Known about the structure:
- There is one protein chain.
- This protein has 159 residues and is mostly helical.
- It has helices at 5-23, 30-37, 41-53, 78-86, 116-133, 137-143, 146-155; strands at 57-60, 66-69.
- The protein is built from seven helices and two strands.
- A two-stranded antiparallel ribbon has the order 1-2.
- The chain is elongated and about 70 Å long.
Amino acid sequence: MQMNEGVEWAAHFCLLLHWLEEDDPRPIPGARLAEVYDLPPAYVGKQLQALTRAGLTRSVPGRHGGLLLARPAAEITLMDVVAAIEGTEEAFRCTEIRRRGINAERPAREFTSPCGIAMAMKSAELAWRRELASTTISDLAERTPSRAAAAARRHFTHL
């Protein structure tokens, strides 16, 4: 499974907003995020819109507007971020290919239980989702060296 690069950026944006809000709860303009990460503003805007639609960030309008986290970092999980950017559809979709070809003539009653492949894929995805759901933005902040947070804060002191 390969995730969109936007997931990584969105997680970084949430982490950065958390660090900045700890010191100074002012909204951060999306254009400023694009500038400090050297990304196209339209690309950053797309990720930020997805986060806002998902209720992870909130947009503050006006001259001094921008984005803030919509809830505490301890309540935003990596799974929330992935779902905001990638959607909530399952990665593996069983299409019952086992019923084709050599098995096409077999009766439907022989295929009432899910096949082992579908069950294994579902189990693996569930474990992955649980792990992401158990990791919050706050957890990430605690695991990140304090110098990274300090460096990020320095870039935003002159808004």
